[in-house]
Amino acid sequence: MAYFAKLGTGNIIERVEVVSNDIATTEQAGVEFLQNLYKDRAVWKQTSYNANIRKNFAGVGFKYDQTRDAFIPPKPYPSWTLNETTCLWESPVAYPTDGQIYKWNETNQTWDLQ
Questions:
Q1: Phi, psi of 48 (to 5 degrees)
Q2: Which of 19, 56, 74, 77 could serve as a FRET partner for 7 with CA atoms 20 to 30 Å apart?
């Protein structure tokens, strides 16, 4: 199966659709199928669960960054920064590796035990 993300205003993902590989033999073939299906000229970009293309699997609310040719999730906290290699957000403090479950505390910029 092939997956396609519909870009809305500001390149924000509005939906993700599945298209059979028999139809989506190329990205353009998948885009044309969806445009014909919905009878519009919406912009669609192929996405991939295994991140073979466009860095991350697109989800509703993600943004397509044309310069990076990548899907970027919404920024979870103001203090987090974008990793240019993965196009994922990273906290200013590394997540603890002690096997416990933590939640980010933006006020203190710490990982707090849940």
A1: -145, 130
A2: 77
* Residue found by looking up tokens 């870009």 in the block: 7
Residue 12 and residue 21: Cα distance in Å, rounded? 25
3-state helix/strand/coil string of the chain:
CEEEEEECHHHEEEEEEEECCCCCCCHHHHHHHHHHHHCCCCEEEEECCCCCCCCCCCCCCCEEECCCCEEECCCCCCCCEEECCCCEEECCCCCCCCCCCEEEECCCCEEEEC
CA distance 67 to 45: 14
Q: What is the pTM of this model?
A: 0.91
CA distance 30 to 66: 19
The rounded distance, in Å, linking the Cα atoms of 22 and 101 is 43
In which residue are the tokens 């609310």 written?
A: 61
